[in-house]
Description:
The protein is α/β, with parallel strands linked by helices. The chain has two domains: about 30-175, 3-Layer(aba) Sandwich (Rossmann fold); about 180-375, 3-Layer(aba) Sandwich (Rossmann fold). The protein has helices at about 5-15, 30-45, 60-75, 85-95, 105-115, 140-145, 180-195, 215-225, 240-245, 255-265, 285-295, 375, and strands at about 20, 25-30, 55, 75-80, 100-105, 120-125, 135-140, 160-165, 175-180, 205, 230, 250-255, 280, 300-305, 310-315, 330-335, 350-355. The strands form four sheets. It has an eight-stranded mixed sheet with strand order 2-1-11-10-12-13-14-15, sandwiched between helices. The chain has a five-stranded parallel sheet with strand order 4-3-5-6-7. α2 crosses α3, α4 packs across α5 and α7 packs across α8 (about 215-225).
Amino acid sequence: MDLRTWMEDKVRRNYDRVLLVFEGKEYTYGEFDRNVNRAANALAGLGIGRGDKVGIMLPNVPEHLYTWLGSMKLGAIDVPINPQFKGKLLADIINHCDLDAIVIDQEIYDGTRSEVDSVGRKLVYSGNGVRIADEGVSWFSSLMDGTSGENPPVTDMKGSDVVSFIFTSGTTGLPKAAMLPHAYYIHHAEKWARTMQTSREDRFFCPLPLYHVVRVTGFLTAIASEASFVLGRRFSSSTFWDQARETGFNVFAGHFAIYDMLLNMPERPDDRENPVDKVNGILPRCVDMVRERFGIDRCYNTFGMTEVGFPCIVALEKGVAEDLCGPPGSDFEVKIFDDADEELPEGEVGEIVCKPREPDIIFKGYYRQEEKTPETCRN
Length: 379
């Protein structure tokens, strides 16, 4: 199945229910989908279509989601880029990906004009409504306001088609553009929803940057659950629990470093008076402390990476001290190999090797780095 068909089915089933909450404003599934359509039609009006690559350099705002999914509805490929990138690194990424358009925040654009100059279609988003005249750019909000909220024409898409380039973290070299297919997003979002046993009664929260696979563990898992989703601009340990009480989110799509930050905050008498009952991305060593201090019942850890998604997800029990990421699901075969690609016996330290048991649930290779793909998928 392709992501458009999957998303539009969720919209039909939940049209008048709240999907997105952002800074006090709520959007139903239907309203959200119409905004996605406006973004798609705005891009189509500039000539963007199937196979074109659309860069996204936006903070955590609804327009980031609209651009991502609007590009998808056209059969285009979204390329989210870390908004902190600039200089030669940003210029190299833009040139490497052959972007046909970029949707960029005005403040980011003001500091990176020379780097993004090579992109033919520049759509600038102004969150504060102030616009600086500049030749050669279009104002994204104006284009959206002037276009239809009806679905763009359907293009022939398959689950195996590439829908995104997500950049690796760069821990072993320069970031590489992993080509992710539609089925990758659907499969791993549904896997998280099943494992965490989330439902339409849940409300997710994610303040982590949308340019990485947190878009799976947060937003798309909320969609898979037919739940609602609170988008945070950024994470703040000092306001986190107040946000939970104010917005009512009970599922936190997190990252292991965040739990240390929350635990390092001064204790408060109302620490346990919060609605949160499920968290993911937490290391086992933090689980008992988080349960005791904040009253969170269900904690989940994972082994995952951009290229393969999340082969292992585990519900962490009380008293687990080691950094356990759990056994593989039925969708992956996972083994430990040595440097000669020989399987190691239990208890030995080596390299984690993953093999999918279902089609199109891992990446399709690195864009324009064919020589790097066999290094990752060599076996």
